[in-house]
Structure formats: structure tokens, C-alpha cells
Amino acid sequence: MTLDRLLGLTGLLKKASLAGAFFVPAIWLSSVQAEVLCPAPRAVTPAQVERVVDGDTLRLKDGRSVRMIGLNAPETGKKGQSAEPYADAARKRLQALVARSDGRVGLLAGKQPKDRYGRTLAHVFGADGSNFEAQLLADGLAYQVAIAPNVELLACQQTAEQRARSAGAGLWRHSPVLAPSQISRSGFSLVSGTVSKVQRNRGGLWIDLEGGLVLHIAPNHLASFDPKTLSGLQGTQLEARGWVLDRSRRGGLKAGQARWMLPLTHPGMLKVVSR
């Protein structure tokens, strides 16, 4: 670690003491450990950051908005709603990473270059080559997500998140994993439950969990899942993550169907906990 890096770390630690004691070990985690995670696999495109929007989005000086690939940070308060826990900490941490890089970043565009809102989808690297997503994940300030086809750095991002999870850092200080019966609204969730029923039809694979949640893999995504993982799921304990949908709002929810549905588009969204 260079002198400049050490001086930058010292400054960050001083700032962290003002933000709360929980933030100090998180910075040590990312600065010491996550810097070696998720190196850029090829040349990146230089860009200049104008401002940090939230914990996973940047606005560039050329006018583009960049949604960072592979993580989902807590939502900041919008339209009168309260911010989710650690949303402000995630935004401030990303601001610190950008400041340490003097606003200069490198972008590695995803195979899918834009999202439905027109934002650029990219991995973001600091001037020293460190990956911003890995550092936020290792701090416990965001959840790892896998959205095909932008999964090039999935394995190392999972490793970064696991470090935070094992250390009980940030979002993992208290387990955020919900049972299906605890789901109360649409949006991103990390859930765990026991498989009660598995059904395959023209609509894909439907995995019902006890408590009122069904995991759905559409036909066009089934080929990316390991058949061994999907076999013999009855009674299995699964952990899944992604954006939960409320099927009752669409109308026509049939008797016996689960109200909540979590679409799975990539194997990285599903983990077998026990069989």
C-alpha cells in the first residue's frame, strides 16, 4: 500500500468516526481486503464523476448516469418515504471512494449496456484499480445481485459479500433474511424457506416455498441453471434474492396460489442451504 493510500485511509477513518462506530471496521474490511477483489479483466474506459446519487448510482460530468453492476444498495428516502437502513452510509462510502480517486474512475461496460431507465450499466474502478462494488459489498453496505447477462464479476462479488456476512458488517449486523411469511411489500428481498411444491409447465419452473412465496424460472432462463440443483427440491431449504412481485395487484390470483412471486433469471440468485 502506497503512502498516498495510507494517508487516504487515515482521512477516511477520521471521517468515519463522525458517522458512527459501526463504520470503522467496515472501512478496514474494504480497504485492506476488498482491494484485491474483482480486478478489471480488461482495459477500462476513463470517466469523471460529477456526483454520487446514492449507494449504487453515479452521475458523470458528461451527463450519463451509471448504475453499478452486481449490487443493490439500500434505497434513499424519496417522495416523502424514509430511507432504508444503511442507505446514507452506502452513499457516503461511495462518495469517499470517489473522492479518494479524485473523481476519476474507470468503467467496464456490461454486456447489456443500459437498463430500462437509460442508465449506463458498468463496473466502476478507482484510479488505483480498486473495484467500487467489491468494496461496498465487503463493507456490508449493499447486497450482491446477479442479473444476466451482466455477471462477469459475479464470483468475486459473492466473495466480497460473504466477507461482510461472516463478519456481521453493516446490513449483516442483524440478519436481513426473511421467511416468506414475513414479506409485506414488493421490492428487493433476501428470503429463505422450505420447498413445499415444484411444478414445471409451459410457463417455466415454479418452486413454492412454505409461507406464501413462489420462485419462478421462465423457460428462456432454465438452460442457465444446473439440472442437478433443480432436481429433488421437495423439502429443500433454499435462499433466494431478487425483486419480489405482488401478484394480487395484477388481479386474477387463483385460490391456492402464492401472493408473492420472486422471478429468478440467473443461478446466482438461488442457493441450496440444506437438503
From TrEMBL:
SUPFAM superfamilies: Staphylococcal nuclease (SSF50199). Residues 43-174 form the TNase-like domain. The keyword Hydrolase applies. It comes from the Bacteria. This is Nuclease (SNase-like) protein. InterPro entries: SNase_OB-fold_sf, Staphylococal_nuclease_OB-fold, Thermonucl_AS. GO terms for molecular function: endonuclease activity; hydrolase activity; nucleic acid binding. PANTHER family: EBNA2 BINDING PROTEIN P100, SERINE_THREONINE-PROTEIN KINASE 31. Keywords: Endonuclease, Hydrolase, Nuclease.
